[in-house]
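Revision sheet: structure tokens.
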Amino acid sequence: MSIFDIFVEAHWDELYAFFSKGNPPLLVVLLAINTAVFIFFMVRRMRGKSAMRPETASTVQTILLAANMFAIFYEDIYRAITRLM
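Predicted:
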């Protein structure tokens, strides 16, 4: 069995059902956010791009940190916003 066969025969409907339920576990959300950023940096590195300027790297790290904090404190942030409205 090849990797492609494993990919084709995966239970994608179960994965869709898992995410469509509404609240995936925190670990999965953090993993998805950090994997997306990691893939961005790997693709950039594979294309042979030069290193980022320090200001840009700091901005990307700040955005990643904010996204992780938002994922962790989503319910509290949502509750605070609904109180304001």
